[in-house]
């Protein structure tokens, strides 16, 4: 009964629940864990057996340690101070979650990790911004996107990416950085509309560059056409 009550006292937000939906292994590494809520929830719901929670921020490490103790999981969750994956043993888990960070920061973490190119590893990535930069990095550095899940959490839209290294640079069109592999759902429409607003905002910075302006107008036209198709398929 006690365990059941603990699980129900602990509600995971939609953003982190999207990450949880991509966890298929019995261990995870949670990068940028902040408060260790994701590994705690996964353990209390018996989805995983062990977790390594890491953060670059000392205060986040303290918060995580306190939460781990609160839920009596000291023997199941190891909390580590680490800049990305720098202090993480590659043999701990093949499932790596990197959520709540910008797309450029996530790209930097993957670039600087000496074992991110191991084909056994699965990366659950959830950028808070610069999603397009992350997708471009993945494609150019041999990472394939297997699936994406978009959720609305409060006023924000988040895309959660399941990716793995395949060792081949991938070709992509101009839609890919902003669309990836998202599916036509209500949450996806909100996400795509946000992407359109972002592109429109960026386009103001080079309105005197004819070539860039024409390229952006074509991209916006494709994005809006895609949105229309999504709406028709509902």
The gist of it:
By secondary structure, the protein is α/β, with parallel strands linked by helices.
| Shape, per Cα inertia axes | globular
**Which topology of the largest domain does CATH recognise?**
Rossmann fold
Q: Can you count the beta strands? A: 7
Unreliable stretches (pLDDT < 50, length at least 5) are 1-8
Radius of gyration: 19 Å
Overall pLDDT: 91
Number of domains: 2
CATH-defined superfamily of the largest domain: Vaccinia Virus protein VP39
User: Count of helical segments?
Assistant: 9
Q: What is the beta-strand fraction?
A: 15-25%
Order of helices and strands: HHEHEHEEHEHEEHHH
Largest sheet at a glance? Answer: 7 strands, mixed
Distance between the termini: 42 Å
What's the CATH C level of the largest domain? Alpha Beta
The CATH architecture assignment of the largest domain turns out to be 3-Layer(aba) Sandwich
Approximate helicity band: 40-55%
Give the arrangement of secondary structure elements.
Layout lengths: L1 H8 L4 H7 L6 E5 L5 H8 L5 E6 L2 H13 L6 E5 L13 E7 L1 H10 L9 E6 L3 H10 L2 E11 L2 E10 L10 H4 L6 H18 L6 H24 L1
Describe this structure in words.
The longest helix has 24 residues, at 210-233. The radius of gyration is 19 Å and the shape is globular. The protein folds into 2 domains: 2-173, Vaccinia Virus protein VP39 (Rossmann fold, 3-Layer(aba) Sandwich), CATH 3.40.50; 183-234. With 234 residues, it is of the alpha/beta class. Mean pLDDT is 91; it is low at 1-8. Helix 8 packs antiparallel against helix 9 (210-233). Helix content is 44%, strand content 21%. Strands 3-2-1-4-5-7-6 form a 7-stranded mixed sheet, with helices on both faces. The relative contact order is 0.11.
């Amino acid at each position: 009964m006690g365990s059941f009550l603990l699980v129900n006292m602990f509600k995971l937000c939609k953003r982190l629940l999207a990450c949880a939906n991509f966890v298929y292994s019995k261990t995870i590494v949670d990068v940028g864990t902040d408060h260790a809520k994701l590994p705690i929830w996964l353990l209390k719901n018996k989805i995983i057996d062990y977790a390594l929670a890491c953060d670059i921020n000392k205060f986040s490490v303290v918060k995580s340690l306190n939460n781990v103790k609160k839920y009596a999981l000291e023997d199941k969750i190891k909390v580590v101070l680490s800049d990305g994956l720098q202090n993480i043993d590659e043999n701990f888990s093949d499932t790596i979650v990197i959520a709540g960070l910008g797309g450029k920061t996530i790209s930097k973490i993957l670039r600087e990790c000496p074992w991110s190119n191991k084909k056994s590893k699965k990366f659950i990535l959830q950028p808070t911004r610069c999603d397009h930069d992350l997708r471009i990095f993945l494609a150019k550095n041999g990472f394939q996107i297997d699936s994406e899940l978009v959720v609305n959490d409060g006023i924000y839209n988040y895309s959660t990416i399941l990716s793995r290294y395949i060792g081949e640079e991938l070709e992509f069109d101009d839609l890919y950085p902003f669309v990836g592999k998202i599916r036509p759902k209500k949450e996806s429409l909100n996400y795509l509309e946000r992407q359109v607003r972002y592109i429109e905002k960026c386009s103001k910075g080079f309105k005197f560059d004819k070539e860039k302006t024409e390229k952006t107008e074509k991209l916006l036209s494709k994005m809006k056409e895609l949105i229309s198709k999504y709406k028709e398929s509902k």
